[in-house]
Structures are given as structure tokens and as C-alpha cells.
Design a protein that fits this description.
Layout (H helix, E strand, L loop, with lengths): L1 H28 L3 H23 L8 H24 L4 H12 L7 H9 L4 H23 L5 H8 L4 H14 L5 H12 L1 H15 L6 H23 L6 H10 L6 H9 L4 H27 L1
Helix pairs in contact: 1-5, 1-10, 1-14, 2-8, 2-9, 2-10, 2-13, 3-4, 3-6, 3-11, 4-6, 4-11, 5-6, 5-12, 6-7, 10-13, 10-14, 11-12, 11-14, 12-14, 13-14
């Protein structure tokens, strides 16, 4: 009960309250949803990536199993979500949202505090690696999945339409060279990156309030089921034959039970691909995630 209380009060409730703030703000003050979203995509997130990746201690040699499993897990769940969308005979934008919801968990703002609570600070390194990998992987697959121009050069141009990939590359480059941004630049970048979580959650809430399109509850239920049920169950089955250290296997299982990433709704708004559905999947999976996370944590304690 103590762990459940900590997860709900220290992680989930703050997320819900910030989303409610955005929802109420849009209703009463008419927040500009597009402007909020672009401030996240073009300002806060790139700054967060540059600041966090440039200063992170990421000795990938120590987390080889985590890296390999995370990459394989991502593409397996991506394929599963797409197949489910095809079985439902859903349009391409809905298939893409189901695929991304299955593969792309909130491993950052939700996952890192969860790991600290459930496993302690010694395992934050592994979660930081997982978060970085998810960012790189999703930036690689979002343009061909969501861009209306299709694949090829059009998808490549779409990938660099926002500064997210350049920001990841810059952060990793600074880290590899052991360079620091000068204080005149680094301090504003760090300040801007620090507002990513509250700003993005506020934008999600405003986006939910502004959504005028009808959202299929059936499709939302499939998206939530893929993220909170299918992902942890398949992860547990995949971990059985692996010779992974028990603590790492437990961490990977619990991480698979986290809700859909906020970036899913951000990208769908930016590409204008059914953002209402994406926001509904993110919101519903976030609200229900304490149940899935608690079940996963209890499974690791048995």
C-alpha cells in the first residue's frame, strides 16, 4: 500500500492535476493549443534533450541487455499495434496511433520517478538509457508513420522539420566529446528544458478540452489495452528465456506497464493526425496506469 500511495501521490496525481489545469485553462481562458504544442516541440523538448543528454553519465557497455531488449521490445510492440489496427480495419492514422501507443511508454517523466520509488537510485541509469533509446527510436519512426507525405525523402525531410533529432544528436555529441555549453547558453537551455513536463501536460489537458472530434471509445480501449496489458504481459514472457539479472528483468517489466508517452499526442497534433484520439489514449492510460504499475511491481516481489 505504501508503494501504491507513493506512486499515486508523487507521480500520477501531479500529472493529472497539470492536465486538469490545462483542461480548465482552455475552457476558461481559451489557451491556444497549437501554440502550446509548438512551444513544447520547438522549445522545451529540444532544450531538455540537449541539457540532459550532454550531462548524462551513460556507460552503455554496462547496460547491454537493457539496450538490446529495449530496441527489440519497441519494434515488436510497434508491429503488434499496427497489426491490431489492421485487424480492426482502422484507417492509417489510427493504426499509427495504436502502434505508437503500444511501443512508446512514458519512460521519462513517469518512468524515472517510478524506478526511483520501486528500485532505488542505483537503477536510474538503466531507465535513463531506456528513455534516451525511446526518444531516438520514436523520432526515427514518427515521420514515416504520421507524415502525410509518405516515406522516402519526404519522411526524411519531415524528421528534421522539428529540432528534436538535431537536439538529440547535439546532446550526444557534447556528451561524447565531454564538452559543456557555455553558461551564457547552457543556463537558459537548462531552464527551458526544466519546464517540459508541466508545459507538455498542460498542453495535453488543453488539447483534450479543445478537441471537437468524436473519439471512438472502442479504439481508445484498444490503445490502453495494448499499452497497459499487452506490453507488460509480452515483456514478462520475453524475459523468461533471457539470462538477464533479476533486478534488470524486474525493472524492464515494471517499465513496460507505464502509460503512453505524452509525446504521442504532441506529435499527432504537430502532424495533424487525429490528435484527439492520441490525447484520449494518453489520458486514459495515465489515469489507469497506477493499477498496471502496482500489479507489475507486486509481480516482481513474488
Amino acid at each position: 500500500m505504501s508503494l501504491l500511495f507513493d506512486v499515486v501521490t508523487q507521480v500520477t496525481l501531479p500529472i493529472i492535476l497539470l492536465m486538469l489545469f490545462g483542461y480548465a485553462g482552455q475552457r476558461r481562458l481559451r489557451f491556444d493549443v497549437i501554440t502550446l504544442n509548438r512551444l513544447v516541440i520547438y522549445g522545451a523538448l529540444p532544450c531538455l534533450f540537449v541539457d540532459s543528454l550532454s550531462r548524462a553519465d551513460l556507460p552503455l557497455g554496462e547496460v547491454r541487455i537493457t539496450v538490446l531488449f529495449t530496441v527489440a521490445q519497441f519494434f515488436a510492440l510497434l508491429a503488434l499495434g499496427w497489426v491490431v489496427g489492421a485487424i480492426l480495419k482502422a484507417p492509417s492514422d489510427v493504426r499509427a496511433i495504436l502502434a505508437l501507443a503500444a511501443a512508446f511508454p512514458n519512460s521519462g517523466n513517469f518512468g524515472i520517478p517510478l524506478v526511483q520509488l520501486a528500485f532505488g537510485n542505483d537503477f536510474v541509469l538503466h531507465q535513463a538509457v531506456i528513455t534516451t533509446l525511446h526518444v531516438v527510436l520514436v523520432l526515427a519512426v514518427v515521420p514515416p508513420l504520421l507524415a502525410t507525405g509518405g516515406g522516402g525523402l519526404g519522411a526524411l525531410r519531415a524528421a528534421f522539420r522539428t529540432p528534436l533529432i538535431p537536439a538529440v544528436l547535439l546532446g550526444l555529441g557534447l556528451n561524447a566529446l565531454d564538452w559543456e555549453l557555455p553558461t551564457l547558453v547552457g543556463y537558459p537551455v537548462a531552464l527551458m528544458g526544466a519546464v517540459t513536463t508541466p508545459l507538455s501536460l498542460t498542453a495535453i489537458g488543453a488539447q483534450l478540452a479543445a478537441g471537437g472530434a468524436v473519439v471512438s471509445r472502442h479504439v481508445v480501449a484498444w490503445g490502453v489495452g495494448l499499452r497497459l496489458l499487452a506490453a507488460p504481459v509480452l515483456t514478462a514472457l520475453a524475459l523468461l528465456p533471457l539470462a538477464a539479472p533479476e533486478a534488470i528483468a524486474d525493472l524492464l517489466l515494471v517499465g513496460a506497464a507505464t502509460p503512453a508517452a505524452i509525446l504521442l499526442a504532441m506529435f499527432c497534433r504537430e502532424y495533424d493526425r487525429n490528435p484527439e484520439l492520441a490525447s484520449a489514449v494518453v489520458a486514459a492510460s495515465t489515469l489507469l496506469s497506477p493499477l498496471a504499475v502496482t500489479a507489475a511491481v507486486l509481480a516482481t516481489r513474488l
